[in-house]
Amino acid sequence: MSSSPSPSLAPALSAPALSARARRLALLVIGLCWLAVLFDGLDMFIYGSVLPHLLETKTFGLTADQAGDLGSYATFGMLVGALTAGTVADRIGRKQLMIGCVTLFSLASGICAISGSVEVFGLGRTLAGVGLGGLLPTAISMVSDYAPRGRAALTIGMLMTAHHAGGILSAYVAKWLVDPVGWRAAFWVCVLPLLFVPVLLKFLPESLSFLVAKGRTDEAHALAERFEVQLPAATGKKTAADRWDALLALFRGGEWLQTLLYWLASFGGLLLVYGVATWLPTLMRAEGYELANALTFVVVFNLGGIVGMLVAGRAADRFGAPRISAIWFALTAVGVFLLGVHMNQAVTMLVVFLTGVFLNSAQTMIYATVSIRSTPDNRATAVGWTSGMGRFGAVFGPWLGGQLLASGNGDWGFTSFAIAGLSSMVFIGIAALRSSKQTEQAGAEQELVASH
């Protein structure tokens, strides 16, 4: 397995302001993080890709409602991992946490591969979720540290494409291995990222921000001089009281309603993302498509996700993140609803692709909206809690799909997810309108004061 970054990243990151050494370092860090997130996506999507086979063969006597519970175990683990990642990274470093996360979700897949019961399989998926949830925010922090100046947003968008590339890989792993070898082989493939751990140990540098914050200035200066990069400015360490005050600020001065609207929009968005990611092959199978075609839909859906991640940011820069998020959720709802209608396969493929384009980036635009609307000193808290509250939707989505199938209402699966998309459209739309009115009122008050 190569530790070199993807060649496709090179042109976009060749910022003229960087020295050759600094550019090599940026490419190295971004390439290694991209591969780590690729494995994250593979492990996340593999369950949904093998799920139709597990249900058809009644592995472990698995029922639809149990399958939904198992899907929620992983997303609950991701909730735990995401909420604790920042604290753990502050203690042991971002590099060590990334290595720990890759190790954890790889070994957890091994537990799934050797499991002989639903309980052991569920334990494996829960532990995998903890590693998956902790890796992504840590990888984002790492690439933000080393991204070329002025290219941070583009770099993060490119990093997120790796998650969907992992989803595509999971579909091919299932197509190639499940029928001829068995479902366990798919999870053994997800153990292979353990071979990537020595590569991270040897080649991935520690975060410069972490080294500076920990007072490890000699290491930070040595790394900065070796690769001719600029050291980040030292920042004061936040106390528990500071973090608590930052959270309370989200509810002061009438901000509580705005905050709840963002949280509700995030809840619906992640319910939709993880509900569809878990149940898409199974629901398409229930619509009468062959298993191979159902897995092809996963590939097309994630290809749409890659395109969406690259398009949404540019559209948001031009038209505004709140507007794009609301429109994207509306289009997602239409696309998801149409998936419940049996159409010509070519038309269905197009709908799946477009749904992937809009669904996977609509949630990202919620985070962009919150980030834009927040003050600089409170931005990290606002985005972090919006993401954390949304994770409860990620837990609920897979469970909901299982309950609908178990009760014989599988045809309501896509409709229910479409309703979640419409609800997020409404919540983010109201939040954006309220925020615009508050801005206009503030501007009018300033003009009034100035006139006196």
Task: Briefly summarize what is shown.
This protein is mainly α. It has helices at 10-13, 20-56, 64-92, 94-114, 118-146, 152-177, 183-189, 197-203, 208-213, 217-227, 240-248, 255-286, 291-319, 321-338, 345-373, 379-406, 413-451.
Based on the model shown, name its key terms.
disordered N terminus, single chain, 452 residues, mainly alpha
Report on this structure:
It is a single chain. With 452 residues, this protein is mostly helical. It is built from 17 helices and no strands. It has helices at 10-13, 20-56, 64-92, 94-114, 118-146, 152-177, 183-189, 197-203, 208-213, 217-227, 240-248, 255-286, 291-319, 321-338, 345-373, 379-406, 413-451. Helix 3 packs antiparallel against helix 4, helix 12 runs antiparallel to helix 13 (291-319) and helix 12 packs parallel to helix 16. The protein is globular and about 60 Å long. The N and C termini lie far apart (70 Å). Residues 1-16 and 440-452 have low confidence and may be disordered.
